Automatic annotation (TrEMBL):
GO terms for biological process: alpha-amino acid metabolic process. This is Kynurenine/alpha-aminoadipate aminotransferase, mitochondrial. Pathway: Amino-acid degradation; L-lysine degradation via saccharopine pathway; glutaryl-CoA from L-lysine: step 4/6. SUPFAM superfamilies: PLP-dependent transferases. It comes from Paramormyrops kingsleyae. One of its GO terms (molecular function) is kynurenine-glyoxylate transaminase activity. Keywords: Aminotransferase, Pyridoxal phosphate, Transferase. Its EC number is 2.6.1.39, 2.6.1.4, 2.6.1.63, 2.6.1.7. The lineage of its organism: Eukaryota, Metazoa, Chordata, Craniata, Vertebrata.
Length: 472
């Protein structure tokens, strides 16, 4: 019945007893427990020793005793009498009940009891029914090899985050020290750069094309180091790789399954963690959907970010982090110390909707959203064909909501957009803001096909075309 950890500790303390040195016994026991904990991790997930990835700040985070009680209370039967929490009494809150009408004619009801719960503090991992629903979804979509969610030894965990942005920000703070080498394929999401750059790390750009990060380029960069150096204290070998695998923001690029497999193999060779930031996963225009890094993760080296922003609502702020238990726990400790939890109200709202829909209903909804964006994308491509053929180049994205357009003969789009485009009443994002050094010239612009009507998109490209021709 004993874990490996316990057995090893007993053996060592017996040895110390023989030496009749109590002080020695205590110290040895402590050190060996630490060491065995590492061994235990290895035995379950193969090669991972998560302690080498944590920053001192993250390693120092401790659970708040009050939050532990809240988690306990959340999982207890309603007969439990708790005098423990410092939660306010919801009977004093002014809100009585809510009925949210759905576009398909259904509704989500919050009666007084569920309203009281929705307006109260809740656990930092997320409300249990939402987490449980999401774990089932992750299992169905990715069947991660490291996971037996239901089994005691399951090493995967999930938590709710306030949008995937919160997860990203907290993951970076957990993993990245000033001076660390971090790998990503720029141009990349400006919110990622905003979270990463203040940490003082050295961002190494891996070349990419319209299929995303190029594995050969990653191999070339990594060949600056010897894989044997990886675990040497003070080693400068990168430990974190970040990428947006589907419908990249801003490039619209999607990684092929083959590239993902190659990148995962390199991550194994150099013991990298991969941050898979995938808010456009559900906006893939073709089926079958690409296999994710999580679905290949035999070691437990993937931290996956999902988001409901593009398929249910961006304002609800519901995102999810899926990854090794040890790392998710660190992020949850950070959540405990910062926001405490994502809004209970929005979590319950989404959870009620999902329970009502079931997995099939949810995936049918996703299909209808995909259909909408596919039409938008097609409209943007035909307008681009109509107005921009002579003055620009692009690749048709297979996921997401962005078209990444290279303007011919224009070395930097910053001035063109910020100074002249407004005069023509058309607005796009100059590509430079997505580069690690935003002051470098960049001939690209990002156009979103999410919000405007096909007619507006057509008119916008007509204006952009005139603008480019004038500047040339
Ligand atoms: N990652 C990427 C690549 C994004 O494009 C976005 C949103 N634009 C986010 C993360 C954050 O999304 P949210 O916080 O709304 O889930």
């Amino acid at each position: 019945l004993l874990s490996k950890e316990t057995v090893l500790v007993i053996q060592i303390s017996m040895l110390a007893d023989v030496l009749r040195d109590d002080q020695f016994a205590i110290e040895q026991r402590f050190i060996i427990m630490f060491y065995c904990d590492d061994l235990f991790d290895h035995s379950v997930t193969g090669t991972m020793n998560y302690s080498r990835f944590l920053t001192a700040v993250s390693a120092a985070r401790k659970p708040s005793p009050i939050r532990i009680l809240t988690e306990l209370q959340q999982r207890s039967p309603p007969t439990l009498i708790s005098l423990a929490g410092g939660a306010p009494n919801p009977s004093t809150f002014p809100f009585q009940s809510v009925i949210i009408t759905l576009k398909n004619g259904g509704s989500i009801k919050f009666d007084e009891a569920s309203m009281n719960r929705a307006l109260q503090y809740s656990g930092s991992y997320g409300i249990p029914e939402l987490i449980s629903w999401m774990k089932d979804l992750q299992r169905a979509l990715h069947s991660p090899p490291t996971v037996a969610y239901a089994a005691e030894k399951g090493r995967m965990e999930m938590c709710v985050t306030t949008g995937s942005q919160e997860g990203l920000c907290k993951v970076f703070e957990m993993l990245i020290n000033p001076g660390d080498n971090v790998l990503l394929d720029a141009p990349t999401y400006s919110g990622t750069l905003a979270a990463l750059q203040p940490l003082g790390c050295n961002i190494i750009n891996i070349a990419s094309d319209h299929h995303g990060m190029i594995p050969e380029a990653l191999r070339r960069v990594l060949s600056r180091w010897d894989p044997a150096e990886v675990r040497r204290p003070g080693s400068t070998v990168p430990r974190v790789l970040y990428t947006i695998p589907n419908g990249g923001n801003p490039t619209g690029a999607s990684l092929t399954a083959e590239r993902k497999r190659e990148i995962y193999q390199l991550a194994r060779e150099y013991d990298l963690l991969i941050v898979e930031d995938d808010p456009y996963y559900f906006l893939q225009f073709q089926k079958p959907w690409a296999p994710t890094f999580l679905s290949m993760d035999v070691d437990g080296r993937i931290i996956r970010m999902d988001s409901f922003s593009k398929i249910l609502s961006s304002g609800l702020r519901i995102g999810f982090m899926t990854g090794p238990q040890t790392l998710v726990e660190r992020v949850v400790l950070h959540i405990q110390a910062s926001t405490m939890h994502t809004s209970t109200f929005t979590q319950l709202m989404v959870s009620k909707l999902l329970q009502d829909w079931g997995q099939d209903g949810f995936l049918r909804h996703v299909d209808s959203v995909v259909e909408f964006y596919r039409k938008q994308r097609d409209a943007m491509i035909s307008s681009a064909d109509r107005w921009l053929k002579d003055v620009a180049e692009w690749h048709t994205p297979t996921a997401g909501m962005f078209l990444w357009i290279k303007l011919k003969g224009i070395s930097d789009t910053q001035k063109l957009i910020m100074e002249k485009a407004l005069e023509k009443e058309v607005l796009l994002v100059p590509g430079g803001v997505f580069n690690i050094d935003s002051s470098l010239p960049c001939p690209y612009v990002r156009a979103a096909f999410s919000l405007s009507t096909p007619q507006q998109i057509d008119e916008a490209f007509k204006r952009l075309s005139a603008l480019i021709k004038e500047s040339l």
